Amino acid sequence: MLVLEEVNVYYGAIHALKGISLEVNQGEIVTLIGSNGAGKSTCLKTISGLLRPKVGKVMFKGADLASIAPQAIVSQGISQVPEGRRVFANMTVIENLELGAYLRKDKSGIKEDIKRVYDLFPRLFERKAQLSGTLSGGEQQMLAMGRALMSRPQLLLLDEPSMGLAPILVKQIFSIIKEINTTGTTILLVEQNAHMALSIANRAYVLETGKIVLAGDSKQLAASEEVRKAYLGG
Ligand code: ATP
Question: Which of 118, 136, 152 is the last residue of a domain?
């Protein structure tokens, strides 16, 4: 479904991605783990078209995304939940969700999908008229995910959904990610919480200073000495 071929991305003189090749197949949960500054967010931004590779290709369903605007990439079926759960603070929960569907015109479908988001996140239903800036951190994460789902993505890109959340909420968010995947959405998940990410993903890539240093089945990686030492606290 998604293929990155030898992708190189720069911020000015900083070479942030150094020849990244990876793939995500339809129906999978794939995780990208690695320490601070490894290039995980850069990788997601390159897929969603916010950054462009200087060298290399990003292909989605067989088509090169190089000349496609970020908005059109959303229409093609890729939606990103950015790091730091950026919601529109001065808008209500329901307005944020409606905004996630701004490229769609099927009013009844949009209504159905808002209901689906409320089924996934009952808390958002309870808070639907509340200004989003006054939601708790966890609720804002739920809203950011719900808003991304409103474009009916085939591929959902999640950037550190567990960041800053209490352990019980982390568990809840990860179980919802699993549920979203079960209902047909392919997922690429960036996480610093390698333990949780490996527990729900089919496959994983380990990124270090802009390069993939390990890749494989999540269970095998979680059991490997190298990953346990560096990312799972021994
Ligand atoms: P974290 O887990 O800390 O969010 P990350 O793996 O997502 O890290 P990136 O945010 O992708 O890492 O950053 C990769 C590298 O690119 C880092 O060295 C970072 O300092 C650099 N970088 C990121 N954004 C910019 C920018 N706008 N300008 C210059 N350098 C940047």
Answer: 152
Say if residues 142 and 179 touch (Cβ distance below 8 Å).
no
Cα radius of gyration rounded to whole Å, the chain? 17
CA 144 to ligand 1 centroid distance, Å: 21
ipTM of predicted assembly, 2 dp: 0.94
* Mean pLDDT across the chain: 94
Q: Does residue 222 share a domain with residue 115? A: no
pLDDT higher for 65 or 165?
A: 65
Note whether 168 and 56 are same-domain residues: yes
Q: Is the CB of 209 under 6 A from ligand 1?
A: no
Total number of domains in the chain:
2
Q: Residue 26 forms beta bridges with which residues?
A: none
Give Cα separations from 160 to 36, 60, 63, 83, 171 (angstroms). 11, 22, 27, 6, 13
pLDDT at 205 over 90: yes
Domain that holds residue 196: 1-41+48-77+153-233
**Spatial distance between the Cα atoms of 17 and 8, rounded to a whole number of angstroms:** 5
Q: pLDDT class for 234, splitting at 50, 70, 90?
A: low
- Residue 190 CA, closest ligand 1 atom number: 7
* Model pLDDT for residues 17-42, shown as the tens digit of each residue: 999 999 999 999 999 999 889 999 99
Is residue 39 within 6 Å of ligand 1 at its C-beta? yes
Q: Is the CB of 14 under 6 A from ligand 1?
A: yes
pTM (2 decimals)?
0.94
Residues 133 and 229 in one domain: no
Q: In this structure, are 171 and 210 located in the same domain?
A: yes
Q: What's the 43 CA to ligand 1 centre distance in angstroms?
A: 10
- The answer, yes or no, to whether any atom of ligand 1 lies below 6 A from the CB of 65, is no
Any atom of ligand 1 within 6 Å of the Cβ of 34: yes
